[in-house]
Amino acid sequence: MEDIEDLLIGTATGTPPGFRLPLAASVATKTNSNRRNPNQKQRTQLATATPSPIPGTQTIYIKTFGCSHNQSDSEYMAGQLSAFGYSFSDNPDQADLWLINTCTVKSPSQSAMDTIIAKGKSSNKPLVVAGCVPQGSRGLKELEGISIVGVQQIDRVVEVVEETLKGHEVRLLTRKTLPALDLPKVRKNKFVEILPINVGCLGACTYCKTKHARGHLGSYTIDSLVGRVKSVIADGVREIWLSSEDTGAYGRDIGVNLPTLLNALVAELPPDASTMLRIGMTNPPFILEHLKEIAETLRHPCVYSFLHVPVQSGSDAVLTAMNREYTVGEFRTVVDTLMELVPGMQIATDIICGFPGETDEDFEQTVNLVKEYKFSQVHISQFYPRPGTPAARMKKVPSNVVKSRSRELTNVFEAFTPYTGMEGKVERIWISDIASDGVHLVGHTKGYIQVLVIAPDHMLGTSAIVKITSCGRWSVFGEVIDTLNLNQVRTNKASSKETPNQDAPSLCCSPASVGSSLQEPESCACGNDSCCAKSTHANSDNTSSDVVPQNQNGRNFIGWVLRKRKYLLHKKFDSSELGSVKKEHGSSRKWDFIDKALLGGISFSIFIIAVVVVALSFRIWSQ
Q1: CA-CA distance, 160 to 4, in Å (whole number)?
Q2: Sign of the CA dihedral running 47, 49, 51, 57
Q3: Is the CB of residue 39 less than 8 Å from the CB of residue 179?
């Protein structure tokens, strides 16, 4: 069917801006009764036969694939749906509708979308698909009979969901203006705001499918972004991630540039560095002329000294075939300049293994580049031909060779020990998440190095001084020796029962992993900020997340006691990695207060049970 456009909203009907008309009055819809799919027909008949439930009373399951920009879109869609009364579930079987936000970067992510769509159809679930797949590949057979929300139509998601629940198929794809930044939002992590500063890019990489979906560069104004930063800081956000398909290209379509934006945003950050800014992925061509200004911003106390700069290959011949518009030498200039001018600077990068035409010599140059810089964070991906891209028509490298190169580069990368030497150092960290092991809280240094600490949950969203106690491959472990923002600590503790927030993922993305390499995120456009500043490796192709509001701070005292006890036990052992445990020699562990408290609680419980059993026995005997 054709794209459906607004008929009344924003026309001369006198409708106030922001007022939502019923979708039936504002856009054309099409029921699914004429579709050949029997499941769709059955659902339409059921919807016709029974009165429609009251809009806003249903439960929605949201699945998100891909980069941080996609995650931000899902949070905006969840916020609007929540504002209209919809609730969320992380159990798809319990949901009345599935909203799937898709990624088109690589084949595995699209295959995962196909799988979940097939499962939804077989379960007779109404489906709405958003994101880059439907926007960039409108004619996919898998999307037949399914409602679609385009990447720049996310502000219309409530209308699409309402009509889909009535049994109608709605498609909103044509790009108009950028969605507003002040839409309601339900964050996956209440302390992290993912702020899109622009959409699309100026590049034309031969392998990139995302350009088909996100389109040409479109930048938000500096005033709108500054307004959003002020708003989220007032909401208690502690990290602001600038996100886009290419941060460095910001503003070139509206007559400004990235340094101008950064200066305006940094001026709004609290002087005590209680809220930190993280600059998103930027390709080399668009920051070469601004390196000194970017370095000055990265040195600012309120900005993480971290930048994601994709190189994709260490061979100029391959970069030319990719149409990356820079050379390896220019990439080196970017990295060398930032490393020289910014103390503690951390660089993340991306590599594509097995691009068409890549020779053994080309690959060797890539390996040598990685060995030379020993990047602590590298996103390694095998080449996936995407339909409709020039690279899909190029002569491919044999798949066994691609896999072999990916494994070789992964082994080289994983052999690095980037954090050696940090043990014993004292660092300030910003704590924003709970690790996937459920024991540690996750903080980051000024250089965005991940630090895992044992601390009460009310320290989430605060800053602390820690001493690094041990170093792992993917993160370091620390011990809190002083806390900062004590008023904020008390505020968080007092409001620990407050509603709303969502469990993180990193995404980056997914929750921090301990002692192992993290799941590989999808890299958007020409290698965007999807690595989320975490070390990654190849051969783990799918990253997704479920957007479900959860209470991240609602953990009770007993949970903290158990985590504290595990920490005390951990200190009794000599371990360089979590899970690699060596027993102390020559001494036995003494019982501490927490052990005695737990034992006392267990003993008291047993005593009460025994008393109840005796009382019941006596009563039965006396009868």
Answers
A1: 11
A2: negative
A3: no
Record the tokens describing residue 186, joined without a space.
């339900």
Please, what is the Cα angle at 73 between 68 and 74, to 5 degrees? Answer: 95
182, with CB counted inside 10 A (0-12, 13-18, 19+), is: exposed
**Half-sphere CA count of 195, side-chain side, radius 13 A:** 32
Report the 3 state secondary structure along 228-273.
HHHHHHHCCCCEEEEECCCHHHCCCCCCCCHHHHHHHHHCCCCCCC
Q: Where are the beta strands (DSSP E) in 331-396?
A: 346-353, 377-382
Which residues does 302 contact at the CB level (< 8 Å), separation at least 6? 266, 269, 270, 271, 273, 275, 276, 277
Task: Tell me the pLDDT tens digit for each residue of 79-109.
Answer: 999 999 999 998 999 999 999 888 776 666 7
List beta partners, residue 351. Answer: 312, 380
Q: Which amino acid is at 490?
A: R
**Alpha-carbon distances, residue 61 vs 40, 173, 338, 499 (angstroms):** 19, 22, 42, 19
Say which residues have a Cβ less than 8 Å from residue 289's Cβ, sequence separation at least 6: none
305 neighbors 448 (Cβ within 8 angstroms): yes
pLDDT tens-digit map of 266-287: 999 999 999 999 999 999 998 9
- Nearest-10 Cα torsion for 231, 236, 239, 240: -10
Give per-residue pLDDT as tens, 504-553. Answer: 333 333 333 333 333 333 444 444 444 333 434 434 344 455 544 444 44
- Beta strands (DSSP E) in 35-189 are 59-65, 87-88, 97-102, 127-131, 147-149, 168-169, 171-172
pTM more than 0.90: no
Amino acid sitting at position 467: K
C-alpha 603, offset from chain centre? 45
CA dist 408 and 79 (Å) reads 43
CA dist 532 and 230 (Å) reads 23
Phi, psi (5° rounding) for residue 483?
-115, 145
CB 506 within 8 A of CB 557: no
The structure tokens 């293994």 sit at: 353
DSSP 410: H
Task: Kindly give, in sequence order, each residue whose CB lies less than 8 Å from that of residue 100, ignoring residues fewer than 6 positions away.
Answer: 62, 63, 65, 113, 116, 117, 120, 127, 128, 129, 130, 131
Asked whether the CA dihedral 176, 181, 184, 186 is positive or negative, the reply is positive
